[in-house]
Design brief:
alpha+beta; homodimer; 118 residues; 29% strand
Amino acid sequence: MNTLSPDVSGQSGGSQQKTLRHVVLVKFKETSSKADIEKVEKAFAGLSKTISLIKTFEWGTNNSPENLNQGLTHCFLAGFSTEKDRDDYLVHPLHKEFVALAQPHLDKVTVIDYWVKP
Amino acid sequence: MNTLSPDVSGQSGGSQQKTLRHVVLVKFKETSSKADIEKVEKAFAGLSKTISLIKTFEWGTNNSPENLNQGLTHCFLAGFSTEKDRDDYLVHPLHKEFVALAQPHLDKVTVIDYWVKP
């Protein structure tokens, strides 16, 4: 079992970086089309390329057999180095633009951020 | 921006492993004490040491300023290599023992699993 970590392939030595994880779970509206949803998925993933404050990013769609997803179908997982970076991301113009694009399609959103503990 | 990945420090070359992420968000009962909660936190983290199916593990407590955590305060994040490993984990005796220990203290639980996409 390894501790999940930011991609360390670019690091030399064994230096440990602290990571602030940003977990966003989403349920889209019934009225949103597959194309609408794909537009939001791509836009969110795109932020990780245009906003350098985002240190790590991944996402995916629910396949849990436990039926505890409370209707939420998507998880987007970003990592930041500091709380300031996370705060700056939240008010970043490109993030605000993304929120404006996504908002009309969001039925439910759950967000938890946490400092990673092993 | 790096893609979040399992700890690759033990790998040679640049081989890419697929990861099935298992996200567990929890709200504890008002009646559960700090000691009760710490017992559950330690037991969950302990599983990642005793159940070898768990490839990556981390956890933490919410510090998001967005107030979108829906009362959920804890995130536990595990990674598996296959859906079979995730399924075997869910019915593993040590996992069942953990659920029995945690259940009396859980008010709300949200679980999403997903294959990691960059």
